[in-house]
Write a structure and sequence with these properties.
It is a single chain. This protein has about 80 residues and is an all-alpha fold. It has a domain at about 40-75. Helices cover about 70% and strands about 0% of the residues. The longest helix is centred in the last third of the chain and has 38 residues, at about 40-75. The mean pLDDT is about 90.
Length: about 80
């Protein structure tokens, strides 16, 4: 994040158990090492991965619906 960016940023704060924080920190270290901003990058990656998995689930459901419609027409 550079000073030339125009997007506004906000801090988020929430509480989780120490064991979950340790697990998250281990994931950050594994993926990014000790780089500055690793936790932010990991959080954003997790959101992106979740959104991608949601889109995949919707597409799979749509494919299944279309295939069922196609098979239904052949039965007639």
């Amino acid at each position: 994040m550079t000073k030339t960016e125009t997007e506004q940023f906000e801090h988020i704060q929430f509480r989780i158990s120490k064991s979950k924080l340790d697990e998250f920190n281990a994931m950050v270290y594994e993926r990014y090492g000790m780089k500055h901003g690793g936790k932010t990058k990991m959080f954003l990656d997790l959101i992106a991965e979740h959104q991608t998995s949601q889109r995949i689930a919707l597409l799979k459901a749509e494919i299944e619906r279309l295939e069922q419609g196609k098979h239904g027409k052949h039965v007639l």
